[in-house]
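Journal club prep, notes for RB
We'll compare a predicted complex against what the paper describes. Inputs for the 3-hydroxy-3-methylglutaryl-coenzyme A case:
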Amino acid sequence: MNNIGLNSKKVWEGFSKLTKKEKLERLVETGFLDPQCVVELQHGGTIKEELLETLIENPIGWFGIPLGVAVNFCIDKKHFIIPMVIEEHSVIAGLSKAAKFINLHGDLSTEILGKHAIGQIQFACLRDPVRFEKKINEQKEFFLHQVNQTVLSSLIKRGGGASDIIVRTIERPDKKIMGILHVLIDPSDAMGANRINQACEFLRELIEAHTHEEVTMCILSNLSDQKITAANAVIYDIDPILGKRIEEASLFAQIDPYRAATNNKGVMNGIDAVLIATGNDWRAVEAGVHAYAARNGQYSSITKWEMREGNLYGRLEAPIQLGTVGGVTQIHPIAKICLGILGITRADELARVVAAVGLIQNFAALNALVSDGIVNGHMKLHIKNLVLSVGAQKEEIPLLSQILIGKLEQTHCVNETDALEILKEIRQNT
Ligand code: HMG
């Protein structure tokens, strides 16, 4: 249903200044949102009680987190509206501003390298590591055939399935040898956790019988580095001072783990928000991304920005293991609406969007950090909360907000005490 009335460079001006009702109308008019979904969203996304009972154990209620949209994304020449579930100020605003800028002055593209998720089978102590490796390699095709014909048969029909088994050995602290098998599985459009675990547990007895070694556990790995999603951005003819400062900020995050952690937190602000909106397991992606960020022995940035011939180039590379079927993606009514807003049915396409969001979220933060600083934009938006929290009445809100913004611009700092004092003065003067 998407892409009505938009071409790759056309941007929406002033979307953020519309009311919520007008925003919903715009999304419906342009075909990004099904009119039937509006009612569901306006009622806070009412979810049936039966669903609550099936999702988790000992449920006692729902916890609401806001759902918003970032606009003006053009990824691989296709226009997207990005649904995001997040409780933090300025993430969606910063992302939308950055997406609009890149839409007008650059390009954003993605690629996927590899296609396999990893299932691990552990042999805590191998009796005969050489014989073990030989047996696995001799019987590999048989093991793969068996697992593909049974637990993975439905994946095979969708073009996925298991395609390789790799032997790894690690020397333990007691000098004995631990054996680990990596079963490489293409989970198609599912995140794959259940299927991969089932496949590994199915292989357990078969492999034990052929190798006479004891399997100690089976589980998927969240460091799915056999499938990397990359996003690339270029901003043409960027202000050279700004470009150079972003390059320096990026270098800081590449060589200093203290900065890398904060840089990657900013990236995950965007990534997690889309994963939650689409019903995906964001903890799995978080774990994989941070493990990947430390793959060279030191925790580093998962993004990189550099200036070349007057243009700023950015790249994000990360293992983004997610699904558009399975889990709660199709059960949770709001996750279904969010996938509809994205117009996405395939997991690979969602991974591309998620990677692009992560990269542009990083650009938004770096752009603010090396120019204005992060506080101004963040606090401008936070002032809305501050005026409500000190009990300002409707007619007092505009003046109190204006004075607080002025103070913020002068001092780079406002807090609840300031808001209370200013409100007291306003009341005394009227
Ligand atoms: P501004 O220039 O004052 O905003 O920026 P504006 O009012 O001129 O509007 C420009 C555009 O910004 C709008 O376009 C929107 O796209 C967006 P329009 O809709 O008018 O065509 N925008 C908004 N969108 C939705 N709701 C809003 C809104 N306001 C503007 N209320 C802004 C203001 C906050 C965007 C800017 O100061 C900014 O980008 N700041 C950076 C914010 C940011 O990156 N926050 C991320 C969270 S902090 C974080 O990531 C952790 C960190 O530690 C990571 C790290 O260290 O790397 C920093």
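Talking point for the session: Strands lie at 67-75, 78-85, 106-113, 117-123, 161-171, 177-186, 217-221, 228-235, 303-308, 311-318.
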